[in-house]
Design a protein that fits this description.
By secondary structure, the protein is of the alpha+beta class. Helix content is 25%, strand content 27%. The chain contains seven helices and 19 strands. A hairpin with a 4-residue loop joins strand 6 and strand 7.
Length: 309
């Protein structure tokens, strides 16, 4: 494959042609990217996007690969793995992080240092960029779990690369945080780095919260290490629950090929080993049809479909 001229500015050791994407997604499903580049800093990420734009190629930024299904035919253009993970924690609890940092790593580091605000998100696969993209949330705090905690509650500001190619710092008003929704769903802006204001707390208490959250989550969600998945497949139906409807249709354990509706959580589809994107999409359609026929509810897909199917 001929190297596009603008790609000459990228580090050649981190640029590959026809690279499989399945290993870089939590579903472990997906065909190859025409080009795959590993960006190791915020500046590198911005440069890679600029190179794709200059080459006239489509581009996609990939974090941990959760909440997406990559098509069996792969992704055209440039896929950029965001490995930009530099971060600092100041004496007043202000955390600055590049957008490719893994949230779980930051959770553990800040909890050990006695700073509260991220402990709710232990066990959720996400980078900082992904967390802001979806306004990462979890039912917490333990043990009551009476409300949903959102990453927006500790967000201060972030630097973005706008869809027009401008680097600028924006606040929560610009991002328009909602439930599983932000401005990033509606504009091709990319988070380069972000700042979060944390509050002082007892490390022992935070460690206990981490254990409680991991236990609670582990009892309700299949382990990614055993059964790869993309997380919840369908959007929340207020007061009803998509998973509950699927369960009431008797579909827990139902499978197409190696794609299966989890026995643990009916709103999660798992890869039993060799599932294809086609298997997953067929299973999604069958769950939608079953719920529509029995209950009259439309199940809307929450995960993103990336590439060609």
């Amino acid at each position: 494959m001929t190297l596009p001229a603008p790609f000459a500015a990228l580090a050649p050791s981190r640029l590959r042609a026809n690279a499989p994407l399945a290993p870089y997604t939590t579903f472990k499903i997906g065909g190859p990217a025409d080009w795959l580049y590993e960006a190791t800093s915020a500046d590198d990420l911005a440069a890679a996007i600029a190179a794709a734009r200059a080459a006239g190629l489509p581009w996609f930024v990939l974090g941990l690969g959760a909440n997406i299904l990559v098509g069996d035919k792969g992704v055209r253009g440039l896929v950029i793995r965001n490995l930009a993970s530099a971060h600092t924690l100041s004496d007043d609890g202000l955390l600055w992080s590049e957008s490719g940092a893994v949230v779980q790593d930051l959770v553990l580091e800040t909890a050990r240092a006695g700073w509260s605000g991220l402990e709710h998100y232990i066990g959720i696969p996400s980078t900082v960029g992904g967390a802001l993209w979806q306004n990462l949330h979890f039912l917490s705090p333990a043990p009551e779990r009476e409300r949903t905690m959102f990453i927006s509650e500790v967000f201060s500001d972030c630097e973005i690369l706008t869809e027009d190619g401008e680097r600028r710092v924006v606040d929560a008003e610009y991002i328009q945080f909602g439930y599983d929704d932000t401005v990033f769903h509606h504009r091709r802006d990319i988070v380069l780095s972000a700042r979060f204001q944390l509050s002082a707390d007892d490390p022992a208490r935070l460690h206990r919260v981490l254990q409680e959250n991991l236990s609670w989550r582990g009892s309700r969600h299949p382990w990614l290490q055993v059964h790869p998945s993309a997380g919840s497949i369908f959007k929340k139906i207020e007061g009803i629950g998509a998973g509950r409807l699927i369960d009431q249709c008797g579909l827990k354990g139902f499978r197409v090929g190696d794609a299966q509706i989890s026995h643990i959580h009916a709103n999660i589809l798992v890869n039993l080993g060799h599932a294809t994107a086609a298997d997953v999409r067929t299973l999604i359609a069958q769950a939608q049809h079953a719920v529509k026929d029995r209950f009259g509810h439309e199940l809307s897909v929450e995960i993103g479909f990336v590439g060609e199917f």
